[in-house]
Write a structure and sequence with these properties.
Number of helices: 17
Radius of gyration: 24 Å
Distance between the termini: 34 Å
CATH architecture of the largest domain: 3-Layer(aba) Sandwich
CATH topology of the largest domain: Rossmann fold
CATH class of the largest domain: Alpha Beta
Number of domains: 3
Shape: elongated
Strand order of the largest sheet: 4-3-2-1-5-6-7
Structural class: alpha/beta
Oligomer: single chain
Largest sheet: 7 strands, parallel
């Protein structure tokens, strides 16, 4: 595997720290390296393994998969220990924290379940129509619009409208619309831990951004409902939507901070082009950015390839694509805050 000499040259201090810290971890008694392995592979391979890790973007996660490529026979290096020992020293150089939106800052699947269930039950109660009629009408509307977020425009539901000719469904079923929107927005509220993390970052003069594969109107609606909008500096979205951007959708309001929004192409997360633009827009080197998201393919891999630090958020969903290894594996926002608190403490300076 080729060593990226430019990457190493751009982080001389970090490279030295990585080598020494990785070696310290390797030698520590708690990791219980097999003595036979040392006899066979020699102490030099410990440094080789550390060099390999550093060359692979100075990763924090010293997993068996990585080390095994260089030094066969070394037992598992505890992931949490690697993070605790190394990440705080690196975090001091990270000024920009970029977060995915769905299943990272908000409970995307939980919110959509609340929306669909409430829309269905409220329409059933208000219309008295059979369950299969309502289900079919909602499914066909979603396919027609390419969107599930039509709770502000019930006139789009052709399968219901045909039973009420010459009737404005938004007026007739205003309570249905309000109930669906309320249930959806309540489920989108950010967790107390996420709010606390954002407040912590702000107190430490860090910049907070959102990079989402959601299109603009739905992203703004979700972010607004989460309560996190006031903390966010820049918002990168996947561009416009033919229905959701219409005023009738009600997803973008006068309070939506559109001046902070940059619309990118739909697939720029996957291709990695979006991460290049994010770094360009923020006017910083990728190494000054920590990207946190739930998807290893969309949030970790392309950001890591560019040179950003990466963290996998697994508190809502768990992506187990083991061929991709993030720098940090987080089970809660509090975990990231604790690591950063250690990095920012006076004793770590």
């Amino acid at each position: 595997m080729d060593v990226d000499s430019k990457a190493l040259a751009s982080h001389p201090a970090e490279t030295h720290g990585w080598l020494s810290d990785a070696a310290a971890i390797a030698y520590s008694a708690e990791h219980k390296l097999q003595q036979k392995s040392w006899t066979e592979i020699g102490i030099g391979l410990a440094v080789g393994a550390a060099t390999f890790v550093a060359a692979r973007r100075l990763h924090v996660n010293l997993t068996p998969e990585r080390i095994a490529e260089v030094a066969k026979g070394v037992e598992t290096v505890t992931r949490s220990s690697a993070v605790a020992d190394i990440f705080p020293s690196l975090a001091k150089d990270v000024d920009h924290f970029v977060f995915d939106l769905d299943s990272t800052l908000i409970d995307y699947y939980g919110a959509n379940r609340a929306l669909h269930q409430t829309m269905f039950t409220e329409l059933r109660s208000a219309t008295g129509l059979p369950d299969d009629v309502i289900k079919s009408a909602l499914q066909k509307t979603a396919r027609k619009l390419g969107s599930n977020y039509y709770y502000n425009d019930l006139n789009q539901i052709d399968g219901i409208r045909k039973y009420y000719p010459n009737t404005d469904l938004n007026e007739k079923f205003a309570n249905v619309s309000l109930s669906a929107k309320t249930a959806y927005h309540d489920a989108l509220k950010a967790s107390p831990e996420t709010v606390e993390l954002f407040e912590f970052l702000r107190r430490n003069d860090k910049k907070i951004h959102v990079f989402t594969a959601s299109q603009t109107a739905r992203a703004m609606d979700k972010l607004s409902a989460s309560g996190l909008t006031p903390y966010v500096d820049q918002i990168f979205t996947a561009g416009p939507h033919p229905f959701e951007d219409l005023p009738s959708s009600g997803l973008i309001t006068a309070e939506s901070p559109m001046s902070r929004v940059t619309e990118l192409d739909y697939d720029t997360k996957e291709t990695g082009e979006g991460y290049q633009f994010v770094a360009y827009k923020l006017k910083v080197k990728p190494s000054k950015i920590l990207m946190t998201g739930d998807s290893l393919n969309l949030d970790v891999k392309p950001a890591q390839r560019l040179g950003m630090y990466t963290a996998q958020a697994s508190w809502y969903v768990q992506d187990t694509s083991r061929s991709i290894v993030p720098d940090l594996e987080l089970t809660s926002p509090k975990q990231l805050q604790s690591l950063l608190a250690e990095a920012y403490s006076p004793t770590s300076q």
